[in-house]
Structure formats: structure tokens, C-alpha cells
């Protein structure tokens, strides 16, 4: 069998490793500046700004959107769900209700209601192509202080319940 290679041979010796060909990236770290000449009023470094942590409502809306649009597998949410939520999510993901051609669906708006401490009922408006869809889910904080999704619904009629669900 003859293999055809599309690359041309490089005119470099075989006993050295290849050199960097990309001139846009720096070759190494910038030179270190000595500490000389620093005054008492000038700080050594700028104060670090606090990085805002995303809210659990935003994180879960993005995670659920990735699964329901087919960009992530359902088992990616296994450790982030509790109770029947994983089964409901798997049932919804089979239909790929938010799959679009071209642009990926995006979360346009998120709102939530706090029914009790440690629980959030969240709604999200999803822009999928030229359609606007609604998604609702419930988050509960466990004993380990981690948020888990306990219910998921997508806009539209609910599927009929079967005796096996109970």
C-alpha cells in the first residue's frame, strides 16, 4: 500500500527538534524587571479585582441548553441532577428540541423565584434560530452546598405520564 503525504519535506536536519514557525506568538517569557527604584507610594502590582462568579441560575441554564441543543451528551449532567430530573432531561434530549441549523441557541433572559431557602425555581427564554422558547428548571442546594437540578421542563404541552414514572 502506498501512502501519499501532502506535506513537503522540511529542509532541517533530523537530529534537532523542530523550531517554532509561528512568528505571531512570543518565543518566551518577557524579561523580568528588577525591583530597583520603587517608591513607597507606588504599589508593586495593581490590586487584583474580584472576579464575579456566575450565578447558579446562569450556569445551569447554559448547561441545560448545551444538552437540549445536542452540543453535549446527556450524561454530562448526571452529577448535576437529582431525583427524576435526569430521566426527564434524557427524555427531552432524545427529541433535541433546541437543535438548530447555523447559529447555536442562546439564553436571552433568566428569572428566578425563591420558594424557600436553598431552592430556586428558574425560567429562561431561549432564542433558537428564529424561535423563542421557554425553559423552566428547579435547583436545590444539597447538604454538600452544591446546586443540583431537580426538575426540567421545556415550553409546550407536557408528555403524558406513564405508570412506570411513578
Low-confidence stretches are 1-9
Examine the secondary-structure arrangement and name the CATH architecture of the domain at 56-156: Roll
Give the amount of beta strand, in percent.
15-25%
Number of helices: 2
Structural class: alpha+beta
- Percent in helix: 10-25%
CATH fold-level name of the domain at 56-156: Nuclear Transport Factor 2, Chain: A
Shape verdict: extended
Largest sheet: 4 strands, antiparallel
Cα-atom Rg, whole angstroms?
A: 26 Å
Quaternary class: single chain
State the end-to-end distance: 60 Å
What does this structure look like?
It is built from two helices and four strands, in the order H-H-E-E-E-E. The protein has 166 residues and is α+β, with helices and mostly antiparallel strands. It has a four-stranded antiparallel sheet with strand order 1-2-3-4. The protein has a domain at 56-156: Roll (Nuclear Transport Factor 2, Chain: A), CATH 3.10.450. The protein has helices at 56-68, 85-95; strands at residues 106-116, 119-128, 131-141, 147-154. The model is unreliable at 1-9 (pLDDT under 50).
Detail the topology: elements first, then pairings.
Elements: H1 56-68, H2 85-95, E1 106-116, E2 119-128, E3 131-141, E4 147-154
Antiparallel strand pairs: 1-2, 2-3, 3-4
Amino acid at each position: 500500500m502506498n501512502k501519499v503525504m501532502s506535506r513537503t519535506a522540511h529542509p532541517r536536519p533530523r537530529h534537532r527538534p523542530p523550531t517554532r514557525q509561528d512568528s505571531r506568538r512570543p518565543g518566551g517569557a518577557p524579561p523580568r524587571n528588577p525591583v530597583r527604584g520603587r517608591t513607597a507610594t507606588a504599589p508593586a502590582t495593581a490590586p487584583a479585582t474580584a472576579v464575579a462568579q456566575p450565578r447558579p441560575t446562569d450556569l445551569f441554564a447554559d448547561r441545560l441548553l448545551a444538552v437540549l441543543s445536542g452540543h453535549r451528551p446527556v450524561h454530562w449532567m448526571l452529577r448535576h441532577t437529582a431525583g427524576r430530573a435526569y430521566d426527564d432531561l434524557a427524555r427531552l434530549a432524545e427529541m433535541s428540541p433546541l437543535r438548530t441549523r447555523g447559529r447555536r441557541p442562546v439564553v436571552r433572559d433568566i428569572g428566578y423565584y425563591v420558594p424557600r431557602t436553598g431552592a430556586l425555581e428558574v425560567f429562561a427564554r431561549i432564542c433558537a434560530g428564529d424561535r423563542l422558547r421557554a425553559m423552566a428548571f428547579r435547583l436545590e442546594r444539597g447538604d454538600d452546598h452544591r446546586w443540583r437540578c431537580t426538575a426540567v421542563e421545556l415550553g409546550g404541552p407536557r408528555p403524558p405520564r406513564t405508570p412506570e414514572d411513578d
